[in-house]
Each structure stands twice: as C-alpha cells, then as structure tokens.
Amino acid sequence: MARPIVPILIAMNRISPQTLRAWLADGHELALLDAREEGEFGASHLFWAVPCPLSQRELRARALLPRPSVRTVCVDDGSGLAETLAAFLEADGGTEVAVLDGGTKAWAAAGHVLFSGINVPSKAFGEWVEHHYGTESVDPPELRAWIDSGRKMVVLDSRTEAEFRRMSIPSGISVPGGELAYRIGDLAPDPDTLVVVNCAGRTRSIMGAESLRRAGIPNKVVALRNGTMGWELAGFRCERGRTERFPPGPPKTAALALARAKAFAEASGVGVIGALDLVRFADEDDRTLYLLDVRDPAEFRAGHHPGSRNAPGGQLVQATDQWIGVRNARIVLLDDDGVRARMAGAWLRQMGHRDVFVVDGGIAATTGVDVALRAVPELAMPVPTLDVLRLTEALDAGEPTVVVDVGRSLDHRDGHIPGALWGIRSRLAGLAPKLAGARHVVATSPDGVLARLAVAELRALTQGGGAEVAALEGGTAAWHAFGRPLVKDRTSPPDEACVDCHLRPYDRNAGVEEAMRAYLSWEIDLVHEIVRDGTVRFGVDADA
Known about the structure:
With 544 residues, this protein is α/β, with parallel strands linked by helices. It folds into four domains: 14-118, Oxidized Rhodanese, domain 1 (3-Layer(aba) Sandwich), CATH 3.40.250.10; 124-252, Oxidized Rhodanese, domain 1; 259-366, Rhodanese-like domain (Oxidized Rhodanese, domain 1, 3-Layer(aba) Sandwich), CATH 3.40.250.10; 378-497, Rhodanese-like domain (Oxidized Rhodanese, domain 1).
C-alpha cells in the first residue's frame, strides 16, 4: 500500500543523531516515537523507539504520552511521516517536540546500531536474564519423553489465554506470566513436582521460569527451550482449542506468594507508596506518571481504578513498549494484594526503569485518588453512523454499498464482513477507485473505534460522488453479534500487504519453518546486539 505524500515542514525542530544520543543518556524523561506502521518499524528501528503509527496516532499518542509536554522525538526512515506525527503532537499540546533529522538512515550513517523486530527492549532483556541468572531449560525431545513417561510435573503456558487456545503443548495449562508466582503454590504444592514454563518462543518462557526461581519456590523449574516453535521444529504437534487454565479467584497460598514477591521486589529496589504519594505524583506536572493495573484482564474488567490501564504483568514485562512510551517516567503498578505488582515491578527495575512503585493496600487504597487518563477528543466528535440492521438491509437490497475495514490486517484475516475492503487509515487513497459509484461507504473495525476516526478520511476520497459515509455502530463485533457471518481468509490481505503488523512466523502463509528458525536466532543474538548499541544497561544498578 503506497504511502501518502507528506509535505516537509520547514519550521519543525530537527535534531542530529549526536543530540539524540546525548538525550538518551542524560537521565531526563524522553519519548522516542516512530511514526511508521508496525511492520515497517519492525524492519529497522532504534533500540529505544516505540511504535506510534500515524494510522493510530489519536489513540496511541494519548496512551503513550500521559503528559503531552514531555520531551519527544519523532522518527521514521526519512520519508516524512515523523514530521506529520510531530505536527499532530504539537497541535495536541506538545511543547518539546523534535524530529530526528534524516531518521533511521542518518542514525545508521552516524555509526549507531539499528534493530529489527518488535518489543526489542523486552526481548533483549529476556536474553540478558537467561545469561545473568543461568535460567535452566529443557529441549522439546526431552520434555516429550517426560510427558510420555508420566513424570510428576506441570507444564505452564505463560502466554495470553487466547494464544494458548490457538496452540499449546500437550498437558499444558494456561497461566499467563503475571500469574505464575501468584498461583504456583496452588498449582504445584509438592516440591517434588517439576515445573516447566513455555511460551511461543523464548522471552516469556525465560521470564516465567526465572520469576518462579527468583520467588524462591522449592521446586525445580525449567523453561521449554524455544517454546511452541521449538516444539514444532522438533517434529511434534501442538494441540488446538484447549481451555485448561488456572482456577479463578485468589489462590489459597496467596500469603506465601506475597512473602516471596516482597523479597524479590525489595532486593530489586521497587518502592512502596501510599495513596497520598500517588496524589502527589498525579499533581506534579513536570513528571510523567503511568498507572498500570497488572491483574488478569477479567479481573480488570470486573473493576479497576478509572485512571489505570490494564497491563497484565507477564505481558507488560515482555512488551513494555506497548504501555510505556517515556523513558525515566514514574511507573505505579496496581493489583489487589501486592503479589503481581511486586513481581512485575521487580523485573521493570531490573530492566532499567528507575522509578517503579507499588501502592500499599493496592487498588482499594486508591479509592478517591484522582488520576485521569488522557481523553481522545476526536472520539467525542459527532460522526454519521449506521447500525447493523440498516447495513444489512442495504446489502441485502443490493444498494451500492462498500464496507471498508480499517482494523488490523491480522484481525481482518481472522474475520471480516463479506465483501469488505481492507485499508490502513491515512493510506486509503488506493481504495478511491473502488469507492466510485457507491451510495453508502461504511467504515468498520473490530470495535468500531478506528472506524469513527476514518470517516473524515473516507469522506475526502468520495467528495463529489454523493456517497453517504458513516461508521458502523459497534464495528465488526456488532455485526457478528447480530448473527451475521464473518469471512476468515488467511490470504486476505496477503503477507506483503500487512505492513501494519509485524508478522510472527505463525502468521505467515509461506516459509513458516524458515521464519521460526530466523526468529529464534534473532532473539538469541539480541544479547550481543545490545552490547554493540552501547545505550543499554540492565540490572538493578542501572541508575547508579
């Protein structure tokens, strides 16, 4: 999909690679946002850069920058997207916004290292943890032999529940990484039970296993080397559709888990604050504050502090840049009894985050504390909408109607409205010929949010054509809930068009085994690449 033509903004504040290098090392708050789509970002980027694609700028920028006046540098590959993002941030209240002059190409020309992949700081940290702590692991053939022999053990899958359902190791159960140290006393009460932790590749296997080891459980703990990818590369089959997971509710051994988590958190330098400290943090307009609830998503949905975002502990540690966009910001973690917040906080400290805190008394202690999420004013603006019934009637009656899905390409593959076109917001010009002659142009996305933001862009493409442009109320989820069918097609869009996503090996339609091997080699090599970079320091003395 072609990129839009972006005008060069002469007045934009531009900085050199040398200046950015100095800013990365000065200890002050800094946001480094890459304006490209995730797939483009994943091809080559700066180590500390965080994806903030233009197609999601209204949502991502507000989530990543709780304080818009923070010092911010926008970057791309020299194509002009960074300037467009910088202009948006300045219009949104940014007072210290700059662009890396020449982008990634200039960074490389200055002799600095570029990285491929996504969630690179977290992935590199996982490799550092394995080397630093000597995390033990087991090869798939040996685990297969243990399973076949009936060895006394538990296999715990540290990914999300959705990933577990998609594919899992035989006999495994879903225990996302943030839950492991919290629930292990119930799951493996006998110290003679071997504990095996797996994920899809390496990071969450290593971090999950080492979390249990750092918690000091008496059981032997090992990571499954290379996870489900290694399992399948060894010639074994994963199971599909399994639903086994940890029992709901607080574990019986919660008190023991808290004692273990406290020891790890204290050794790692996690701070403990009260509600009044949180009030003070929220009131200080010269520091950025992230308030993250690390509990299981179901618990978060059941009730949470209105100013917090859900960042389940194990997923937060393995993909920190999804939630934290500002280096050297304050990070406050919430849960109900302190176990999961302390475990996640300990790892964030060791990752190099300086100011990491948990709240004494947890979520209950924050009642009445005013911490507000940044609003997305564009979502409050009125836009024409169409409900599912009206769209159904138009389609069934043969009215010239075009549905445009602006959700993620992988979500479109997993299920889209029959006949829907797919496109990336801000790059929809290529669809203009297919909109000609339409009476209705209906934007949709999984939950309808991005669809609302796309209405103006689609209207600009249909000016003069007389089409009514509207957003589908509730998006594709509402269509499906109404009982209408969805089309699943792994080839639409094709791999080469999915520039909005960094395709995992399992997402590809060809060369899957080769992609698995390349991915695992990439992860293993990160520990050496960060040495070349020279800006990365892991460990609790990182801020010393």
